[in-house]
Amino acid sequence: MDKGRWDRSRGAELNHQFNLEWLSRCQRLLTADGTIWVSGTQHVIHSVGFAMQQLGMKLLNDIVWEKPNPPPNLSCRYFAHSAETLIWAGRNKQTKHLFNYRLMKEINGGKQMKSVWRIAAPRPQEKAFGRHPTQKPVELLERIILASSREQDWVFDPFAGSATTGVAAVRCGRRFVGCELDGKAVELSRQRLQAEIATGYGGTAVG
Ligand SMILES: C[S@@+](CC[C@H](N)C(=O)[O-])C[C@H]1O[C@@H](n2cnc3c(N)ncnc32)[C@H](O)[C@@H]1O
Hints:
Helix content: 25-40%
Strand order of the largest sheet: 1-3-2-4
Number of strands: 7
Bound molecules: S-adenosylmethionine
Oligomer: single chain
Strand content: 15-25%
Mean pLDDT: 95
Low-confidence stretches: none
Radius of gyration: 17 Å
Protein backbone atom coordinates (compact mmCIF):
# COMPACT_ATOMS: atom_id res chain seq x y z
CA MET A 1 0.00 0.00 0.00
CA ASP A 2 1.36 3.44 -0.95
CA LYS A 3 1.04 5.55 2.21
CA GLY A 4 3.02 8.49 0.79
CA ARG A 5 6.62 9.60 0.20
CA TRP A 6 7.34 9.75 3.93
CA ASP A 7 6.86 5.97 4.17
CA ARG A 8 9.42 5.00 1.47
CA SER A 9 12.48 3.21 2.78
CA ARG A 10 15.89 4.88 2.33
CA GLY A 11 17.62 1.64 3.30
CA ALA A 12 18.07 0.10 6.75
CA GLU A 13 20.98 2.33 7.84
CA LEU A 14 19.55 5.70 6.80
CA ASN A 15 16.15 4.73 8.21
CA HIS A 16 17.85 3.90 11.50
CA GLN A 17 19.79 7.18 11.53
CA PHE A 18 16.51 9.03 11.07
CA ASN A 19 14.90 7.10 13.93
CA LEU A 20 17.86 7.87 16.20
CA GLU A 21 17.68 11.57 15.30
CA TRP A 22 13.99 12.16 15.95
CA LEU A 23 13.90 9.94 19.04
CA SER A 24 16.82 11.85 20.60
CA ARG A 25 14.97 15.13 20.02
CA CYS A 26 11.84 13.71 21.66
CA GLN A 27 13.93 12.40 24.54
CA ARG A 28 15.12 15.95 25.24
CA LEU A 29 11.50 17.16 25.41
CA LEU A 30 10.31 14.60 27.95
CA THR A 31 9.59 15.68 31.52
CA ALA A 32 11.08 13.71 34.42
CA ASP A 33 8.16 11.27 34.67
CA GLY A 34 6.98 11.65 31.05
CA THR A 35 7.14 8.77 28.60
CA ILE A 36 7.17 8.14 24.87
CA TRP A 37 4.99 5.75 22.89
CA VAL A 38 5.85 4.64 19.36
CA SER A 39 3.70 2.36 17.26
CA GLY A 40 4.90 0.63 14.13
CA THR A 41 4.86 -2.43 11.95
CA GLN A 42 7.75 -4.86 11.50
CA HIS A 43 9.35 -2.53 8.92
CA VAL A 44 10.28 0.09 11.48
CA ILE A 45 9.60 -0.99 15.04
CA HIS A 46 12.78 -3.05 15.55
CA SER A 47 14.95 -0.10 14.53
CA VAL A 48 12.93 2.14 16.88
CA GLY A 49 13.47 -0.30 19.79
CA PHE A 50 17.20 -0.52 19.09
CA ALA A 51 17.51 3.26 18.79
CA MET A 52 15.77 3.64 22.15
CA GLN A 53 18.31 1.27 23.69
CA GLN A 54 21.20 3.17 22.09
CA LEU A 55 19.82 6.41 23.55
CA GLY A 56 19.64 4.88 27.03
CA MET A 57 15.87 5.05 27.28
CA LYS A 58 14.08 2.73 29.70
CA LEU A 59 11.90 0.20 27.88
CA LEU A 60 8.72 -0.16 29.95
CA ASN A 61 6.41 -2.38 27.90
CA ASP A 62 5.78 -3.53 24.39
CA ILE A 63 2.09 -3.63 23.67
CA VAL A 64 0.54 -5.78 20.97
CA TRP A 65 -2.28 -3.87 19.35
CA GLU A 66 -4.44 -6.62 17.88
CA LYS A 67 -6.75 -5.59 15.02
CA PRO A 68 -9.88 -7.76 15.06
CA ASN A 69 -10.79 -7.48 11.36
CA PRO A 70 -7.59 -7.32 9.31
CA PRO A 71 -7.72 -7.47 5.50
CA PRO A 72 -6.89 -10.97 4.20
CA ASN A 73 -3.39 -11.61 2.84
CA LEU A 74 -4.09 -11.92 -0.88
CA SER A 75 -0.77 -13.60 -1.77
CA CYS A 76 -1.48 -16.43 0.70
CA ARG A 77 2.28 -16.58 1.38
CA TYR A 78 2.15 -14.86 4.78
CA PHE A 79 -0.05 -14.83 7.87
CA ALA A 80 -2.66 -12.08 7.63
CA HIS A 81 -1.03 -9.01 9.26
CA SER A 82 -3.26 -8.36 12.22
CA ALA A 83 -1.16 -6.57 14.84
CA GLU A 84 1.11 -3.61 15.45
CA THR A 85 3.66 -3.25 18.21
CA LEU A 86 3.72 -0.23 20.48
CA ILE A 87 6.85 0.45 22.51
CA TRP A 88 6.42 2.44 25.71
CA ALA A 89 9.63 3.96 27.09
CA GLY A 90 10.91 6.43 29.68
CA ARG A 91 13.51 9.13 29.13
CA ASN A 92 16.37 7.22 30.80
CA LYS A 93 17.10 4.36 33.18
CA GLN A 94 16.45 6.57 36.24
CA THR A 95 12.96 7.56 35.05
CA LYS A 96 10.20 7.20 37.62
CA HIS A 97 7.51 7.02 34.99
CA LEU A 98 3.89 7.98 35.51
CA PHE A 99 1.46 5.05 35.17
CA ASN A 100 -2.21 5.39 36.06
CA TYR A 101 -2.45 1.77 37.10
CA ARG A 102 -5.78 1.97 38.92
CA LEU A 103 -7.52 3.71 36.05
CA MET A 104 -6.30 1.07 33.60
CA LYS A 105 -7.56 -1.67 35.92
CA GLU A 106 -10.93 0.07 36.22
CA ILE A 107 -11.21 0.40 32.41
CA ASN A 108 -10.44 -3.31 32.19
CA GLY A 109 -13.40 -4.30 34.39
CA GLY A 110 -11.40 -4.54 37.65
CA LYS A 111 -8.66 -6.82 36.27
CA GLN A 112 -5.04 -5.82 35.73
CA MET A 113 -4.67 -4.54 32.18
CA LYS A 114 -2.57 -6.85 30.01
CA SER A 115 -0.17 -5.94 27.22
CA VAL A 116 -2.34 -7.26 24.39
CA TRP A 117 -4.98 -4.71 23.37
CA ARG A 118 -7.76 -5.70 21.00
CA ILE A 119 -8.98 -2.46 19.44
CA ALA A 120 -10.91 -2.12 16.18
CA ALA A 121 -9.90 0.11 13.24
CA PRO A 122 -11.22 3.71 13.28
CA ARG A 123 -15.01 3.94 13.07
CA PRO A 124 -16.63 5.69 10.08
CA GLN A 125 -17.45 8.80 12.18
CA GLU A 126 -13.70 9.17 12.93
CA LYS A 127 -13.27 9.74 9.18
CA ALA A 128 -16.11 12.24 8.87
CA PHE A 129 -13.76 15.02 7.70
CA GLY A 130 -11.70 12.78 5.38
CA ARG A 131 -9.34 9.88 5.72
CA HIS A 132 -5.65 9.48 6.39
CA PRO A 133 -4.01 6.28 5.04
CA THR A 134 -2.63 5.24 8.43
CA GLN A 135 -5.23 6.75 10.74
CA LYS A 136 -5.25 5.23 14.22
CA PRO A 137 -8.39 4.60 16.27
CA VAL A 138 -9.11 7.31 18.86
CA GLU A 139 -9.70 4.55 21.44
CA LEU A 140 -6.06 3.42 21.12
CA LEU A 141 -4.68 6.92 21.69
CA GLU A 142 -7.11 7.59 24.54
CA ARG A 143 -5.87 4.52 26.37
CA ILE A 144 -2.24 5.55 25.92
CA ILE A 145 -2.87 9.11 27.11
CA LEU A 146 -5.00 8.07 30.07
CA ALA A 147 -2.39 5.49 31.10
CA SER A 148 0.58 7.79 31.15
CA SER A 149 -0.36 11.44 31.71
CA ARG A 150 -2.30 13.77 33.99
CA GLU A 151 -5.04 16.27 33.13
CA GLN A 152 -3.63 19.44 31.52
CA ASP A 153 -0.31 17.72 30.67
CA TRP A 154 1.24 18.42 27.27
CA VAL A 155 1.09 15.63 24.68
CA PHE A 156 3.37 15.93 21.63
CA ASP A 157 3.08 13.94 18.40
CA PRO A 158 5.93 14.63 15.93
CA PHE A 159 4.18 12.67 13.13
CA ALA A 160 0.63 13.81 13.76
CA GLY A 161 -1.09 12.68 10.53
CA SER A 162 -4.79 13.42 10.97
CA ALA A 163 -4.18 14.36 14.65
CA THR A 164 -5.79 11.32 16.24
CA THR A 165 -3.42 11.89 19.16
CA GLY A 166 -4.69 15.47 19.39
CA VAL A 167 -8.35 14.43 19.31
CA ALA A 168 -7.72 11.92 22.10
CA ALA A 169 -5.68 14.46 24.08
CA VAL A 170 -8.46 17.08 23.93
CA ARG A 171 -11.03 14.44 24.87
CA CYS A 172 -8.95 13.48 27.91
CA GLY A 173 -8.45 17.12 29.00
CA ARG A 174 -4.77 17.31 27.95
CA ARG A 175 -2.97 19.93 25.84
CA PHE A 176 -1.67 18.93 22.42
CA VAL A 177 1.09 20.00 20.03
CA GLY A 178 1.75 18.23 16.76
CA CYS A 179 4.04 18.41 13.70
CA GLU A 180 3.01 17.26 10.27
CA LEU A 181 4.68 17.57 6.82
CA ASP A 182 1.62 17.08 4.66
CA GLY A 183 -0.62 20.14 4.19
CA LYS A 184 -3.73 18.07 3.50
CA ALA A 185 -3.26 16.15 6.72
CA VAL A 186 -2.78 19.45 8.60
CA GLU A 187 -6.10 20.72 7.22
CA LEU A 188 -7.81 17.47 8.17
CA SER A 189 -6.30 17.79 11.66
CA ARG A 190 -7.52 21.36 11.97
CA GLN A 191 -11.09 20.30 11.20
CA ARG A 192 -11.00 17.31 13.54
CA LEU A 193 -9.53 19.32 16.41
CA GLN A 194 -11.91 22.23 15.93
CA ALA A 195 -14.89 19.84 16.06
CA GLU A 196 -13.49 18.15 19.16
CA ILE A 197 -12.85 21.42 21.00
CA ALA A 198 -16.37 22.62 20.08
CA THR A 199 -17.87 19.64 21.94
CA GLY A 200 -16.55 21.21 25.16
CA TYR A 201 -13.89 18.71 26.22
CA GLY A 202 -11.25 20.15 28.54
CA GLY A 203 -8.13 20.08 26.36
CA THR A 204 -6.48 22.47 23.93
CA ALA A 205 -4.43 22.05 20.76
CA VAL A 206 -1.79 24.02 18.89
CA GLY A 207 0.20 22.97 15.83
C1 LIG B 1 1.79 7.01 10.50
S1 LIG B 1 1.27 8.60 9.99
C2 LIG B 1 0.47 9.21 11.43
C3 LIG B 1 -0.98 8.86 11.49
C4 LIG B 1 -1.66 9.42 12.72
N1 LIG B 1 -1.28 8.66 13.91
C5 LIG B 1 -3.16 9.42 12.54
O1 LIG B 1 -3.88 8.74 13.31
O2 LIG B 1 -3.64 10.07 11.63
C6 LIG B 1 2.76 9.49 9.94
C7 LIG B 1 2.64 10.93 9.48
O3 LIG B 1 3.93 11.53 9.66
C8 LIG B 1 4.11 12.51 8.65
N2 LIG B 1 5.56 12.71 8.53
C9 LIG B 1 6.47 11.90 7.97
N3 LIG B 1 7.71 12.42 8.10
C10 LIG B 1 7.58 13.57 8.80
C11 LIG B 1 8.50 14.56 9.28
N4 LIG B 1 9.80 14.44 9.05
N5 LIG B 1 8.01 15.61 9.97
C12 LIG B 1 6.67 15.72 10.21
N6 LIG B 1 5.75 14.83 9.77
C13 LIG B 1 6.20 13.77 9.09
C14 LIG B 1 3.45 11.90 7.40
O4 LIG B 1 3.06 12.91 6.50
C15 LIG B 1 2.26 11.13 8.02
O5 LIG B 1 1.08 11.89 7.94
